[in-house]
Amino acid sequence: MLLLQMTNILGPIIAITAIGYMFGRSSIRLHTETLSVLIVLVATPALIFSTLTSLEVSLEVLGIMAGAAALCMAVSAGLAALVLTCTGRSIRSFLPPLIFPNSGNMGLPLVILAFGEQGALLGVAYFFVVALAQHSIGFSIYAGSVRLRVLLRQPLFYALIAVLLVIGFSIPVPQVVLTTTQMLGGMMIPAMLLLLGTSLASLKVADLAPALIVATGRLLIGVVSAVVAIMLLDLRGVPAGVVFLLATMPAAIVNYIFAERFQFNPEQVAGTVVVSTVLTFVCLPTLVWAALAISKSEAPLSALLTRSGT
């Protein structure tokens, strides 16, 4: 029974990523730049809006998951700075990959397949905080200066504002808007996995030793940050399982995109992303098993979700 459950969760992730990888290795190439722009500018804000408004999440639940995401990133930042300082690695190059997990491309499909509708709700509430931080703090680290105006150009920022207004003031959303955003958001998960596979086919590993060190650090730091957040926020049940899975995802591909844009060790960052992703794929059965085990406990936050849906 457990083996079947794990197959049902991991099978689609591996299959769609493999399809993207084969496209990346074949003469029929997916245009990754167009695909990534479509995901960031259209699919992601649509998914955030449709999921958080159609499932009637409360601001309290939204705040708890956002707080868990922020706490995981804060703990990761502290541990990452310590690891990089002790190992003599470049903080500017490797701090973002250690802080920001791939909670979109890999994390969201996993929590949706593992925990269903509740996983989608909690996962999106966690993911939007990571995405906002990636496109503001992460971007600024690689740029070498604070670039908060970049955040103001992100549609997902305004999607979040719209969600807060709808939830906070109980504004009814027209069905045509819900249907449109649901259709647009529905393409995000498969598009992200295809992009992940295609990107892995084109990225090369430079300097395997530092890439392996940082990739291992990302996984271990993710586990520690998840445990700290779950304990401090007293999360149990499905919310705890969602936080654990999303916090332990590999280094996000967007880190390589920013490193390439500002020409700050892009080859080494690419190697880190590849090795981190492969390492996480190897560990996925264990990570998913742990998340499912964690989710079986009684969850005070689950009571909040039940009340918000009634």
From TrEMBL:
GO terms for biological process: transmembrane transport. One of its GO terms (cellular component) is membrane. It comes from the Bacteria. It is found in: Membrane. It is a multi-pass membrane protein. The chain crosses the membrane at residues 6-23, 35-55, 61-86, 98-115, 121-144, 156-177, 183-201, 208-232, 238-258, 270-294. Keywords: Cell membrane, Membrane, Transmembrane, Transmembrane helix, Transport. Its main location: membrane. Pfam families: Mem_trans. This is AEC family transporter.
